[in-house]
Design brief:
- This protein has 18 helices and 28 strands.
- It is an alpha+beta fold.
- The chain has 3 domains: 177 residues, Threonyl-trna Synthetase, Chain A, domain 2 (Threonyl-tRNA Synthetase, Chain A, domain 2, 2-Layer Sandwich), CATH 3.30.980.10; 247 residues, BirA Bifunctional Protein, domain 2; 92 residues, Rossmann fold (3-Layer(aba) Sandwich).
- An 8-stranded mixed beta sheet has the order 11-15-16-23-20-19-17-18, sandwiched between helices. Strands 1, 2, 3, 7 and 8 form a 5-stranded antiparallel beta sheet that branches. Strands 25-24-26-27-28 form a 5-stranded mixed beta sheet, with helices on both faces.
- A hairpin with a 5-residue loop joins strand 21 and strand 22.
- Helix 1 packs across helix 2 and helix 6 packs across helix 14.
- The longest helix is centred in the first third of the chain and has 21 residues.
- The protein binds zinc ion (2 copies).
């Protein structure tokens, strides 16, 4: 959830204190900006004479800040004229840059004074530094950051700090970070042989090994089944298109993550960054009557987006992303029912992954900035009110976020909490009154009139890649049985039992269980260790006893044992666990 004002004020005040501490060490340091971020704050500096702070220095800053906190310094604000501000910040080129910009926007300038230190700032502080819990913050690390985020500008040093409302909250956040490091999907993806990213193919373009591909397929198959039972129909679309399509949709003007087009027969062709316009065209080419609406088209297909190289990360931020995309074309009177159907599916899907703690964010337009959106105010108001009403009816937790809508409609984002308490935005439902207009979509009503349908965009997983990254970390690689690439591993005690092991393998495979037989020459102990590092849910060790009576002995990943059970009993036990998507 959004941070409270008081937490915001604590974090932002600490940024000021950090600047004071830094200036004590390097009095001629130049100051950039010091905003609040979602786990604390940072401040950008240009140090003099090639100085960069060491880890010892960071500890020193933290100590100095703690002293200031205990001293009870006040934050005193006042408005100043542009000329006065320029005098005060005479030696500070970045502050002057900001002053010039604010002057251009005709904004009032405010300055906050803490002790002797003055900073240009629009406010949001504690009144007295004693309001900041002295054990609730820490300075963590530095990173390079260009002034104003542009490579054309000077590289500054960004110093980061964590800050929370209490020492306990800081500790639990640190524990969560540590746990997240252990579960890092990039590390587990390598260890479990799920996926790789190679320089020869490019950053942000993951490849999947057989086990990773199986995991993908299993997830996508689950989604596909859920859709089928709710009346969604599969379609298929190509991955490139003439620019004409994006002229109609408006993406050429408003969407900046597209790759440079290629020329084919004198036309510009684009690799698709999203699917909506393709879906619109497909709907448009057929005649539709009010009786056949809603039309629910779906396609799991890969998109290509230009994400900045510095922002790419494993599977969670990629340049090739596969969406479980769906576009529903409905009559206005069917919107609520359609969204209910989607909410029902989202709930059921996430229960299968053991994610039941979530809230909904209703993303609205920025009512002050109309250039960012297509479509009239009336259309927007109707769409926003409809979404608000539907969410309220569910009784689920929700929040409203201004300025988070897409340029063609407001949306619902579903924020799920994973096993270690982190929030992930996964599913999205988006109402769209604008694309149907641009594509001149219609259906024929009872009076034989052409009527505009409403489009609802929907993705349950968001992107398969990102979802997999999140799931790898959520389960720490210990996937539930139904998701595990290998569900059962068979280990014959020695060569003598390979024949029986092979028979067991064939029967499991026949029952659609993903099974592997390890009859390599390694010792049994070593083969067990390998199966455990692979996090296989069931290990079957077969020897004399099992062969004689035709049973199996199974060890479950969580330590539970199934001793000498008949093979058909074992098969029916785990088949049930698979179909009910049991999570241990
Ligand atoms: Zn401030
Ligand atoms: Zn769409």
């Amino acid at each position: 959830m959004e941070q409270t004002d008081s937490l915001h004020n604590i974090r932002h005040s600490l940024a000021h204190l950090l600047a004071i501490a830094v200036l004590e060490k390097d009095p001629s340091a130049k100051l950039g900006i010091g905003p609040v971020i979602d786990n604390g704050f940072y401040y950008d500096f240009e140090f003099s004479n090639g100085y960069t702070p060491t880890p010892e220095d960071l500890k020193g800053f933290e100590k100095a800040m703690r002293k200031m906190v205990n001293k009870g310094l006040l934050f005193e604000g006042r408005e100043v004229s542009v000329d006065d501000a320029k005098k005060i910040f005479a030696g500070q080129p970045y502050k002057l840059d900001l002053i010039n910009e604010l002057e251009g926007e005709g904004k009032n300038l405010t300055i906050y004074k803490t002790g002797e230190f003055e900073d240009l700032c629009k406010g949001g502080h504690v009144e007295n530094t004693k309001e900041i819990p002295a054990d609730a913050f820490t300075i963590t690390h530095t990173a390079g950051a260009y002034w104003r985020g542009s490579e054309k500008n000077q590289m500054l040093t960004r110093i980061y700090g964590l800050a929370f409302e209490s020492g306990e909250a800081l500790d639990s956040y640190k524990k969560q970070l540590e746990e997240a490091r252990k579960r890092d999907h990039r590390k587990l993806g390598k260890e479990l042989e799920l996926f790789t990213i190679v320089d020869e193919i490019g950053a942000g373009l993951p490849l999947f090994y057989p086990k990773g591909a199986l995991l993908r397929k299993t997830i996508e198959h689950f989604i596909s089944e859920q859709q089928k039972k709710r009346g969604y129909q599969d379609i298929w679309i190509p991955h490139i298109t003439k620019g004409t399509l994006y002229e109609i949709s408006g993406h050429l003007d408003k969407y900046d993550a597209m790759y440079t087009p290629m020329k084919i027969d004198e036309h510009d062709y684009y690799v698709k960054p999203m699917n909506c316009p393709h879906f619109m065209m497909l709907y448009k080419t057929l005649q539709h009557s009010y009786k056949e609406l809603p039309v629910r088209y779906t396609c799991t297909t890969t998109n290509y987006r230009y994400e900045k190289s510095g922002e790419l990360s494993g599977l969670t931020r990629v340049r090739s992303l596969t969406q479980d995309d769906c576009h529903v074309f409905t009559r206005p009177d069917q919107i609520e029912e359609e969204i209910d159907l989607m909410l029902d599916m989202i709930k059921e899907v996430y229960a299968g992954f053991g994610l039941s703690d979530f809230y909904v964010r209703i993303s609205l337009r920025d009512s002050k900035n109309k250039d960012k959106y297509i479509g009239s105010d009336d259309v927007w108001d109707t769409a926003e009110n409809a979404l608000r009403g539907i969410v309220k009816k569910t009784g689920w937790k929700y929040e409203e976020a201004e300025d988070e809508a897409a340029f063609y409609g407001p949306k619902l984002d579903f924020m799920f909490k994973d096993a270690i308490g982190r929030q992930w935005q996964l599913s999205t439902i988006q109402l769209d009154f604008n694309l149907p207009e641009r594509f001149d979509l219609n259906y024929i009503d009872e009076a034989n009139e052409k009527i505009r349908p409403v489009v609802i965009h929907r993705a349950v997983l968001g992107s398969t890649e990102r979802f997999m990254g999140v799931m790898i970390e959520h389960f720490a690689g210990n996937f539930p049985l139904w998701l595990s690439p290998v569900q059962v591993k068979i280990l014959p005690i020695s060569e003598k039992y390979v024949e029986y092991a092979e028979k067991v393998r064939a029967e499991l495979a026949n029952a659609d269980i993903r099974v592997e037989l390890d009859d390599s020459n390694e010792s049994l102990g070593k083969r067990i260790r390998i199966a455990k590092t692979e996090k296989v849910p069931y290990i079957l060790v077969l020897g004399e006893k099992e062969v004689e009576v035709g049973t199996v002995t199974a060890e479950r990943r969580d330590g539970a044992h199934l001793d000498a059970v008949a093979l058909d009993v074992f098969i029916s036990t785990i088949t049930k666990e698979i179909t009910t998507k049991e999570i241990w």
